[in-house]
Amino acid sequence: MSRDAPTLKVSYDHMLTRHVASIGVMERRNYEFSWSDGIFRDCVKSGYFCQRVLLGDELIGYAVMQIAADEAHILNLCIDKPYQRKGYARELLGHMVRLAAQHRAQTVFLEARPSNSRAIELYERSGFNEIGVRKDYYDSAKGRENAIVMALTVC
Ligand SMILES: CC(C)(COP(=O)(O)OP(=O)(O)OC[C@H]1O[C@@H](n2cnc3c(N)ncnc32)[C@H](O)[C@@H]1OP(=O)(O)O)[C@@H](O)C(=O)NCCC(=O)NCCS
User: Fold this and answer.
1) Catalytic annotation on 145?
2) What's the pTM?
3) Which letter does DSSP use for residue 17 in this model?
4) Most buried residue, 3, 17, 75, 143, by most Cβ within 10 Å?
5) Is position 111 annotated as part of the catalytic site?
6) How do residues 38-91 score in pLDDT, each as one tens digit?
7) Distance of CA 29 from the midpoint of ligand 1 (Å)
């Protein structure tokens, strides 16, 4: 059954280079194999769609998306631990899909680890379908782990 919508409304703004240190702390808290601050800085400098999720003044999550021609690729999406399971990731994903559509993307792609059942469930319930597998895509404690590739048609 679907959870209630979050009671407090979130807002979104653009991640800037000066935000990267706090994003990096959140990234390391939420991923076993995390992006470095340098990767976030490169994404900001490259003009990717880097969004922060704010609850009042408090940072509670972020997402990074690249759009090229009519394809959008969500590269990172995270809600900080204390705020998970409240519907914020579902809202953030919807926000990123709307951004992609506004910038004329026709398909949104993303990857997830098969072991990340929370993320896969979120994406499936948001309308994404599995379209393939990338072999040995991620670092993992046991060596390498495949990526499930998922896609959503937005128009
Ligand atoms: C995956 C993640 C983004 C989910 O964020 P969230 O805010 O907890 O998700 P939501 O509350 O919006 O939940 C939306 C849906 O996700 C799924 N979900 C979320 N948490 C779940 C959990 N612990 N177990 C199973 N499903 C879960 C459910 O389908 C849920 O729908 P429901 O509320 O109707 O049950 C969050 O756990 C996270 O940031 N994890 C660390 C980073 C990460 O793994 N990012 C994804 C990389 S591919």
Assistant:
1) no
2) 0.93
3) G
4) 75
5) yes
6) 999 999 999 999 999 999 999 999 999 999 999 999 999 999 999 999 999 999
7) 15
